[in-house]
Amino acid sequence: MAFKLLASLLALAAVSNAALIRKATCADGRTTANAACCALFPILDDIQENLFDGGECGEEVHESLRLTFHDAIGFSPALTAQGKFGGGGADGSLITFDEIETPFHANGGIDDIVDVQKPFIARHNITAGDFIQFAGAIGVSNCPGAPQLEFLLGRPEATQASPDLLVPEPFDTVDSILARFGDAGFSPAEVVALLASHTIAAADHVDPSIPGTPFDSTPGVFDSQFFIEVQLRGTLFPGTGGNQGEVESPLAGEIRLQSDSELARDSRTACEWQSFVDNQTKLQNAFKAAMAKLAVVGQDVSQMIDCSDIIPVPKPVTGQAHLPAGLSHNDVEQACATVAFPTLPTDPGPVTSVPPVPPS
Ligand code: HEM
Ligand SMILES: *[C@@H]1O[C@H](CO)[C@@H](O)[C@H](O)[C@H]1NC(C)=O
Ligand SMILES: *[C@@H]1O[C@H](CO)[C@@H](O)[C@H](O)[C@H]1NC(C)=O
């Protein structure tokens, strides 16, 4: 009995000792769980200073997050089953084979951030696949209210370009969007969670006459306003009407994608959508889990090193969930059949319009 107790105490000591030994102090004094992650600190500093303008949650962060998705979703077991190459997932092929992938219709405008990120990859010892996901995770950490995303290191160089037509378009049906994500391994609930990305997002190309038009009123904060505002009755086009993939929005200066509008109102996704309206903790946890999956699509996780502790911890959310000034619960298009839309305060004052995201 006494021997057993001693043995387990010794085992415990060995475990905590190993944990202590694994904690590495890097050349600049910063610490991380694994010495192999030390090489990321200089890259982190370069990204924050020179890609994200000193740690902002602005246009380059939005574009870098979109890039994590467009690289990763290039992965199709359905194509592989037909004997074709289905893409390598989060492998950096969108940058390595940018001359093939950036002209794909769904990648419109992505060449901007590809061209901005390329010199960073060239001056550091990191693969394009790792860099895209690393920059995305750092970028999200600059947005108040975001979760600290995971980051695993070790994606090999892409060997081939991804095939066309794997990135969803805003004019696709809900059936086709859910099928495409399902092929890549994501459930309808995970699709809704991933769309939290559109709370820190704007469109340059859906209506080219109004570049930088955001999807919600707070594109610099990772809050739930996107889920609230997409559920409000659309009444206007912020620019010109008749753009493919665009439907009416509830606020001047705000743009709404047809795909977001339909996912908010489809019986398969509406209740999940509504569940994020007034639950910041759920929003953070669900987005973090879905992004962790997205970042390693097509990759062999057993060959990767967990460097998540390098990613900065974001600031807490600013403001609280609300209806925009001048609007009320009568403007909510209730779509979840089982739970009522949460009661929210309305911002005081007259109806406002949403300013564009400034280019940097
Ligand atoms: C149904 C799936 C999706 C569709 C149809 C879609 C479509 C779009 C479109 C059309 C734009 C505007 C691009 C432009 O005109 O500049 C956009 C922007 C964006 N998307 Fe998505 N998206 C989807 C899912 C996602 C996912 C899963 C993520 C990330 C995890 C994401 C992140 C973003 C971000 C951050 C932007 C803003 C880019 C910027 O401000 O420059 N999207 N999306
Ligand atoms: C570059 O990174 C790889 C893998 O992370 C590492 O094995 C290699 O030693 C590094 N090369 C240099 C020159 O630092
Ligand atoms: C938020 O979501 C979590 C997870 O689904 C749930 O357990 C919790 O009850 C929700 N909180 C509120 C206030 O709705």
UniProtKB/TrEMBL annotation:
The keyword Glycoprotein applies. SUPFAM superfamilies: Heme-dependent peroxidases. Its EC number is 1.11.1.-. GO terms for biological process: cellular response to oxidative stress; hydrogen peroxide catabolic process; lignin catabolic process; response to reactive oxygen species. Residues 1-18 form the signal peptide. It is an enzyme of class 1 (oxidoreductase). Keywords: Calcium, Disulfide bond, Glycoprotein, Heme, Iron, Lignin degradation, Metal-binding, Oxidoreductase, Peroxidase, Signal. The active site is at H70. It holds the Pfam family peroxidase. Ca(2+) 2 binds at T199, D216, T218, D223. Disulfide bonds join C26-C38, C37-C307, C57-C143, C271-C336. It comes from the Eukaryota. Heme b binds at H198. Ca(2+) 1 binds at D71, G89, D91, S93. Its cofactor is Ca(2+); heme b. Residues 65-340 form the Plant heme peroxidase family profile domain. The record marks R66 as: Transition state stabilizer. Binds 2 calcium ions per subunit. GO terms for molecular function: heme binding; metal ion binding; peroxidase activity. Belongs to the peroxidase family. Ligninase subfamily. This is Peroxidase. It comes from Cerrena zonata.
